[in-house]
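Homework help thread (please don't just give me the answer)

Our assignment gives two proteins as sequence + structure token strings and asks us to describe the second one. The first is just a warm-up. Here they are:
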Amino acid sequence: MLAMRRGKILMLGGASGVGKTTVCHRAAMLARERGRHVAGLLMPARTRNGVRCGQDVEDLSTGERRHVAEKATATGPACLDRWHFDEVALAWGRDVLRRATPCDLLIIDEVGPLELQAGRGWTNAVEILRAARFDRALVVVRDSLASAFRERMGRDDLSSITVTPANRDSLPALLLAASDDLR
């Protein structure tokens, strides 16, 4: 287990496509290499001919993946911001989060408009984060929703890092080094 203050939450922000999911994926790999228990959800993009066409959701404990979103060709109740979401995959993701803790490193990619504005998606994420049954959590939160997330969490002490092209390659190791320094 990480020897640091339990329940430390770090928000990762940054522009769309900058590499927030990649930072989470690399941090998970490094943590596992150091013998840490990593759990949570990763949302890697699916591309076709270099164009983002969908999103998968990956259980970081098992590596199991499901298709969770497709670019919307129509509008309707399952669509949000040009995306069509698979309700079965969303329910599966909520269940993955429910079983994710306790762990050393919890990753939630992402708490975004679906959760904070539409009341769908990883609706149990805030409850799980509040329970703090992890040593550190990395939570992807869009910059435009950071205040709403802090408000929903009821905490103003959440740290935030903006992922940029300049720091995204070194950030995973820096995040874990900060954890190691607190031993």
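The one we have to describe:
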Amino acid sequence: MSLSVSLRHRLGDFALDLAFEAPDGVTVLFGRSGSGKTSVINAVAGLMQPDAGRIAVAGRVLFDSAAGVSVPVHRRRLGYVFQEGRLFPHLTVRQNLIYARRVQGLGPDNAALDRVVALLGLESLLDRQPAALSGGEAQRVAIGRALLSDPVMLLMDEPLAALDGARKAEILPYLERLRREAGVPILYVSHNMAEVARLATHVVAMEGGRVTQAGPAEAMLADPGLVRVMGLRDAGAVLQARVLRHGEDGVSDLQVSGGVLCLPLVDAPVGTDLRVRILAQDVMLATERPRNISALNILPVTVLALRRGDGPGVIVQVQAGDDLLLARITRRSADALGLRPGGTCFAVLKSVAVAPTDIGLGLQS
């Protein structure tokens, strides 16, 4: 495991009491505001010393209250990206990037600089001052500066929270490339489900200072039990897909394990591996294959679980091939259809229901 965390800490009336382990890749600490996510990432960084616990990164112990170990912040070799870029305003982008190595006592490395610049698309920004950058550009520079400090892990505390929708859409592809190409594990704080679905390989769900669930992203996002934390509107699952073809009619065909998914033209070459987020509210269920219907996507599925809330709704977990989906329907519909675990039916999805921002690069290059 890249990261092992066990800690207890009291902040006024709020108490952290949790433990989790995270593999390589992008581990997202997910939960509502006030659940303790930032406190955890600050404890890992060394910006907050827990009352008790143990933190280890890549097998190296950074904090152990029982053994009296607390490695200083500057010796933890962790790159931290905050909500704001926090660039030095009097330095150019190039100088901000180079500073990262100097502050760690590292010598110049033009090859490393070139790799990071190419990875984050910073070539045209190098001679600019921070004041001349957009919010998305400044965050890309901040990420590059963190990478050039030669960290064993990147820590990102809601790095897109201060950006508008357009800037978020601009920077997400770079974060996906970072996940695939940088080779550095990332601990990422977010309460935005769209970001989690695009980026996470592992999810740690938090509530009230405690870990409620943890596991691989695909399984976690399709777990009906997590809907309480996600919220009904954001409930949805992630499918792994590969681009099969692009039709002249403006529709792309994507291969998923349960069949073929037809979506409005996807901006990715044939053969590209993608992740596609399907919202539960956009999935309909039918006990017979629908005929003479405008929806292009009809997948045979098996019902795995039904979660009934206090209101009129039901979240149904179904399996399509190797993938999991969620459907949000009414209790009346679930009863009328006779849905039960182990039963079979068909999941119906409108092609236009999937937003371009819910389609991202797959985990493999």
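TA reply:
I won't write it for you, but here's a hint about the kind of observation we're looking for: The chain has two domains: 3-221, 236-361.
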